[in-house]
Amino acid sequence: MTTPLDPSEAGVIASPDQSDADPSTLLGLHEMELNFGPQHPSTHGVLRIVLKVDGEKIVSARPDIGYLHRGTEKLFETETYPMIVPHTDRMDYVAAATNNHAFCLTIEKLLGVEIPKRVQYIRVLLDEMQRLSSHLLWLATSAIDLGAMTPFFYTFREREVILDLFEEFCGARLTLNCMKIGGVYGELTPGFTQRVRDFAEPFNQRLDEYENLLTDNRIWKKRTIGIGILTVEQCIEWGVTGPPLRGAGMAWDIRRAIPYECYPELQFDIPIGRNADTYDRYLVRMAEMHQSRSIVLQCLDWLDKNPTGEIRGKVPRVIKPPAGEAYACVESPKGEIGFYLVSSGGNKPYRLHVRPPSFINLQALPEMVKGLLVSDLVAVIGTIDIVLGEVDR
Amino acid sequence: MELSDGFINYVLIPAAKAFIFINIMAVMAGVLTLFERRILAFMQVRKGPNRVGFEGSLQWIADTIKLMFKEDIVPTKAEKLVHFLAPVLVVVPALTVFCVIPWGPEFTVRLPLLGRITTGGYATDLNVGLLFVLAVTSIGIYGIILGGWASNSKYALLGGLRSAAQLISYEVPMGFAVVSVILMSSSLSLVEIIEAQRRFGMWFIFPGLLAFFLYFLSGVAETNRIPFDLPEAESELVAGFHTEYSGVKWSFFFLGEYANMVTISAIATTLFLGGWLRPFPSVQALSFLDIVPGAAWFLLKISVFMFVYIWFRATFPRYRFDQLMALGWKTLIPLSMGNLVLVAIAALGGRRGLNTLGTILWTLFGVSMILTLRARSSRRSLAARTPIVNAVPGVLEVSR
Amino acid sequence: MAEETPPAGPVNPPAPEAPKPAAAPAPAKLKGPVPVDASGKPLVANLANAVPGAILSAHEFVGETTVDVALDKIVDVCRYLKDTESFTYLVDLTAVDWKERKPRFDVVFWLHSFKRNNERLRLKVKVEENASCPTVSTVWKTANWMEREVFDLFGITFAGHPDLRRILTWDGFNGHPLRKDFPIQGIDTGAAIYPDRYPEGGGPAPDDPNRKVVS
Fold first, then answer.
1. Which of B155, B235, B322 sits opposite A378 (nearest CB)?
2. Under an 8 A CB cutoff, do A40 and B394 touch?
3. In Å, how far is A138's CA from the nearest CA of chain B?
4. Among the listed ranges A16-25, A81-90, B389-398, which one has the minimum average pLDDT value?
5. Is 50 exceeded by the pLDDT of residue A336?
6. Cβ contacts of residue B131 below 8 Å, gap of 6+?
7. How far, CA to CA in Å, does A145 sit from each of A149, A245, B223?
8. Least enclosed by CB within 10 Å: which of A55, A113, B277, B347?
């Protein structure tokens, strides 16, 4: 975080002491400094962006983060491994299952435990439901940022069902804590698969409803096509993963590239865009929801065929991974989320570092918004799909 | 005591009518907020306010009372006087305009003490009524700009600037659309315009289809409603020009906005939908419809516009500022000028000319609607479902 | 901002655990995966040839290759890996504090290559407490914020970084939270650091020209 701005500056239109060696100041023109956030309706939390605007055109944007910093990585070092799982929920709090999953995978990699098939399918089921709920939230918020109000309520209708299903499975709606090291929280409740199926089967019609509102909407297209372009090269340079990378046209998805759990057994396509703009990222996420739905249905089919089985691998009672280090990652709705674990052989991690996709994707924001208008900044923040809990940890 | 005729006709009745109309307007703005919230809720699969009174019917009163008692915050570095004046500047013109809106034809009532009184269903019938409306509503813009400036907040300033640019741009096509109606009616008086529509036996929407669309679109832009609500775009500028307002002052901005919506709808009704006239005023077979009072027709037509306003809000995303400007200057203004020329030529031919123009416009409109709908239905497949390219197995290209 | 002032407030060092540097081979009696020497791998051999003297050791552990790199060669190594070996994507950059070790810190780079069938490679450099690590933000732009985060939380400076400011904590923050000697319950900040400047109970300092007295 930077030095807090002089309080007077927040209210004054153009501070007279802006004596940069910029030709515009010689003409008596001032670039206005605009504090976008931390209290702002469309920064999705407590993100602050210090904008230099020329009229409404963005000259430079400087994201300023840390308002939600809770020292999660420090906390990790003081807790035993099973106690860490709930902490991971609170990073990307709209996609808790994938956080849990990445953390559990890391420990399991170091422990070298075999994960039962059934656990793998339940985990993937939860992951994909989480992806659906996260993408629905993304669609809701990014649409409302562009002034389209109605998709918000439509998506929340569906998200509510997913959250109810999560609640049924693990008792929590948002901070799931649904995975244990070596297993999952518990057995599926009776009839759970049927209820998920009841939700997922008609879900593609719901998606069509959203698309009817937005995809061919002329204003939506005007607001998103060609906005916030981040090409594949730029994405890689900035470490941007997830839908922005795929929207730029690179079919890279950890589920396929570095397969984990039972993903190799599942049929799904990686949606990619071509134009690397906000509209393509929108299309990619919409298509990803279709794919996630299909994965959910495949998992349900498998789980219906195998209604019983172990829900936890052979994990020691006290989890003490051998000394060493490991990194494991999963494809979260935002991109690659990974955990880097340094173990000293104790029951607490010596160091546990998170590779947060939101944090790293957000870094590309100034690159994306340069020369756009303030209105486009809102669209771009929406399209990166950040969660400040994960950015600041 | 005997009241003189002059006192009755020039003081008492106008004062009473002004009182009634101002209250009608204030109540309409209030009820409109309730309708908006309920209709939006209906469109967005939720309930909306349904606690205060029967199904939330008193919600708007509760809101008003709440706003009255809220703390009035004035930013420390604000321009205090202007900050105070701005909401007044918004709300006074919005109320003033109401005195020329014709709600119904002349009628006669028998009142105790005053006897038989024949008066119009309008506060006054100015012979420059239309000009008066355009002039007075434009004053409200000063309130928005000054409010944005006086708040000494960057967001408010941006909102005010946007508002200024937007209103200037959209006043022009609106003016041209109105002028085309004046060409048809040969009068600036709103009552006279309705009478002209009765004389012609058709609403002016028939020859003035294009003018109607232009007028209503510009009207939506002028009232800062979605998809043109840039001055207060809540996701960009927090609340735009009224970011730093609260309490009664804020409610004045709010009242002004909704009153302006009513005004725009009322003027659109008057100019294009025949005001208090029933549908097809020249068709005798429909004369049983005359049983419905003119004011009810008027209210019904206004409600349709209100519904469309709310419908827009539920459907559209917001335009970007430069796109809004481009739409105004590059599309609407040339269109409205072209329309003006067309109407002027048609008006030379009198009733026949206008009929011809109307027929041509409506035919074109119908054909384009059919083509659009057919194009839409042939594109049933949505982008994310059906890829265009599926070259690599396992990879979907969704981009178009 | 960058100088090492001991944290004010109650310092309560955490119970010292016996850290074992991961780079050192784990004792054989421990069950589980064992690090294997990986200096024979073609990639590591190529790297050793291209940047002589850069590689101190290399090992493979749970399928992850880790290469210890000399501190002054890290930029060359990274540039070589990015340009020649197509490790174009820097997944992660972080640090580990080995409090009792000399040099104290490990800075860890986690590289990914799309072209080499999603191969990943970990680089490590050892950094002394008051020394600085050369920045790799000139190699990958994404390293910019990652290095800022490491600087913020560990106090490791990155020489040549374009914008080395704190990122997660605030600018006046005193201390580096992820160091092992930073107390878990935190330190008093603000008023405790500048008691003469800040009024009791918070708020802007009295000598702040923009301080307003609300009557």
1. B235
2. no
3. 15
4. A16-25
5. yes
6. B188
7. 8, 22, 20
8. A55
